[in-house]
């Protein structure tokens, strides 16, 4: 059992909107991630998705309203709710949920694979 320093773990990520599992407990995975630009609109029919901001600013767009998050803020997107995370600058965060969701089905944009950067219009 070792401690996890979230800022150190997030600094090792090479792709935006990818997740790295850093711990597990009570059936939940604790995953660091980083984002810039936006994901695609998506929902998770099988799980809630919790975001805890480590560094930067993240806007969670919902069809009904936007939720702006900064360091230390926590927001849970309920299962089945369509959402789109957006970051104007590089943002690092912890995602808590039972599965890894950094896939195309989980909203991961095509440009982000292989360490790509967002197109100008994101």
Automatic annotation (TrEMBL):
InterPro entries in alphabetical order: Cupin_2 (IPR013096), PKS_Associated_Protein (IPR052044), RmlC-like_jellyroll (IPR014710), RmlC_Cupin_sf (IPR011051)
Alphabetized Pfam families for the sequence: Cupin_2 (PF07883)
Gene3D superfamilies in the cross-refs: Jelly Rolls (2.60.120.10)
Cupin type-2 domain segment(s): 29-95
Superkingdom of origin: Bacteria
PANTHER family in UniProt: 16.7 KDA PROTEIN IN WHIE LOCUS (PTHR36114)
Protein name listed in UniProt: Cupin domain-containing protein
Species annotation: Leekyejoonella antrihumi
Taxonomic classification: Bacteria, Bacillati, Actinomycetota, Actinomycetes, Micrococcales
